[in-house]
Amino acid sequence: MIDHRETQGNLRIRSHSIHIDNRELMSVSGVKDVESFNEQEVLLITEAGELHVEGTGLHITKLSLDDGQVVIEGEILSLDYEDAPESRGSLFSRLFK
Fold first, then answer.
1. 67 belongs to a structural domain
2. Residue 71 lies in domain
3. How far is residue 56's CA from residue 67's CA, in Å, rounded to a whole number?
């Protein structure tokens, strides 16, 4: 898996990608943080927003936040994104549109 990175000034922007093999092994790049995890769900904060991974027997087998890489093994049943908080705006800006 290739992780393309761009530099804008002092800010490093990571790309985000997902690669899944046979619904049993998932590699994710562009990961900022692991919010929570257990055998049924992994919640990742990525460059593209919150990523919810649901399945059975899920285990994080590789975690490198410096490189933005996470590898998850187990039976992967679903993936779901929520928009990044920065793109949604503040609570007040959403209430008073």
1. yes
2. 24-84
3. 26
Alpha carbon distance 48, 61 (integer Å): 22
For 23-39, b where at least 16 C-beta lie within 10 A, e where not — what string? eeebbbbbbeeeeebee
Give the global pTM. Answer: 0.73
- pLDDT by residue for the chain (97 residues), tens digit each? 444 444 445 555 568 999 999 999 999 999 999 999 999 999 999 999 999 999 999 999 999 999 999 999 999 999 999 975 555 555 555 566 5
Q: How far is the C-alpha of 59 from the C-alpha of 3, rounded, in Å? A: 22
Domain count across the chain: 1
Question: What is the three-class DSSP state of 35?
Answer: strand
Residue 45 lies in a domain: yes
Tokens 């593209």 sit on residue? 48
